[in-house]
Design a protein that fits this description.
Helix content is 30%, strand content 16%. By secondary structure, the chain is of the alpha+beta class. It folds into 2 domains: 81 residues, no CATH class; 308 residues, no CATH class. Helix 1 crosses helix 3, helix 2 packs across helix 3 and helix 5 packs across helix 6.
């Protein structure tokens, strides 16, 4: 047996013994579709044809890469085009930065750990957040059935405490799986000094007052995303989507005949449910209300979403009380939440004191615990119907932070999207 070197899904170099059996050796990479969004074969189709065109060497890659040309649009690309770390120089740090972001570390703490700039960490987390949005939806596409849903709002802020917002979370009551989230800007409330009230009035005069129905709209989008599911599927070459073997998921996801919802007594929640029923008259909704003053124990029907709030506050440095690591932009908070969503559902044990299953395993979405290498195994492309409702604006970084004016972060890259 001769030693050979190859790359695993996370891009890390591994030494293995190649057997004489040809089937045991790594197979040559075959692109599943054209990566050009303007090409007719951007959607995977069997009749697509391509040809190999030499090799490519990259300073950031330890081995040479096969190059290809699409015979339809003539676009050239390589193996690395289908890697999650495409166009990243610090590619080895990508899964480690994602892991540290849910371990309570802030951007500058992560940057000091690896000796890099905090802006590099921010770019990696933005890429990881966009990827996790797509990964979560394709994972959710495999849901075999529905369970009662508990939903509530997690309050945090962006830029300063004068700009609070809700992260509306929906979790399965029995599995604790986080199914969906949206965001809603709020007006600062509570006890304020005379100076703080004056400053709030000045900011609202200059930037406008937040929509008083923002929570209703956010919860409506949350419930609509639960109702519609995903209805999409990536190419079969992605190991996270195989329907057989150790990593497989089922592929059917029927619409639920009834939504069984649990929430607290927030008046906007009832209005959002009525609005959902007006847009979908055939939908039956059972809505149970639990007072927010009820003890937050495992016997509380809202335990799943309360636990998600606790973990989000504990594991996210940007959501802790009186922290200097707070999110400067709401868009960045959403991207970090997407990373947290995948970690909580598929990587973290459902119960730390009783390991053995994850929330995704309890919900019937995964057959084993996933790792960051599994999550980032293959680059995911944003396709038609890939993301529900407002998640498209999250992916393309269209969520505005009012105080920044025209200095908004937008996702405008043509190739490394």
């Amino acid at each position: 047996m001769a030693a050979c070197r190859w790359l695993d899904a996370a891009g890390m170099s591994i030494t293995r013994q190649c057997r004489t059996d040809p089937e045991a050796r790594p197979r040559p990479f075959a692109p599943p579709h054209c990566p050009n969004r303007a090409c007719d074969f951007f959607q995977p189709r069997e009749e697509w044809s391509y040809r190999r065109e030499g090799w490519l060497r990259s300073p950031a890659h330890p081995r040479r890469l096969q190059r290809f040309r699409c015979l339809h649009c003539k676009r050239k690309f390589s193996e690395r085009t289908f890697e999650t770390t495409y166009w990243l120089h610090r590619r080895r740090l990508f899964p480690q930065i994602a892991a540290l972001s849910v371990a309570g570390a802030g951007l500058r703490q992560i940057a000091r750990t690896f000796g890099i700039s905090h802006s590099t960490v921010a770019r990696h987390l933005a890429r990881a957040g966009r990827h996790c949005l797509l990964f979560h939806r394709q994972l959710l596409h495999a849901s075999p059935n529905w369970e009662p849903i508990a939903f509530d709002g997690f309050e945090t802020f962006e830029h300063s405490q004068f700009f609070p917002f809700h992260l509306n979370l929906a979790a399965g009551r029995s599995s604790w799986f986080l199914y969906h989230f949206t965001e809603s800007p709020l007006r600062r409330k509570g006890r304020m000094t005379v100076e703080q009230r004056r400053q709030r009035a000045e900011l609202e005069a200059a930037l406008g007052r937040p929509d008083p129905k923002a929570v209703e709209r956010g919860v409506f989008e949350l419930l609509r995303g639960l109702r519609r599911g995903t209805g999409w599927r990536e190419d079969a070459s992605n190991p996270s989507l195989r329907s057989s073997g150790d990593e497989g998921f089922s592929t059917s996801r029927p619409l639920p005949p009834q939504l069984h919802l649990h929430s607290d007594e927030h008046p906007a929640y009832r209005r959002a449910i009525r609005r959902l029923q007006d847009t979908d008259p055939g939908l039956r909704v059972r809505h149970d209300v639990t007072p927010s003053t009820a003890p937050r124990t495992t016997a509380n029907p809202l335990c799943a979403v309360n636990l998600a709030d606790l973990l989000l506050r504990h594991c996210g440095a940007n959501h802790r009380r009186e922290t200097i690591a707070f999110s400067k932009r709401r868009q960045a908070a959403i991207e970090r939440l997407a990373v947290f969503l995948v970690w909580r559902n598929a990587i973290k044990w459902r119960r730390e004191k009783k390991p053995g299953e994850t929330a995704a395993m309890r919900a019937g979405l995964a057959r084993r615990r996933l790792s960051w290498s599994d999550v980032f195994a293959r680059r995911l492309f944003p396709r038609r119907n890939a993301l529900p409702g407002v998640w498209w604006s999250y992916y393309w970084r269209k969520v505005r932070t009012a105080v920044l004016g025209s200095r908004q972060a937008r996702h405008t890259l043509k190739f490394a999207f």
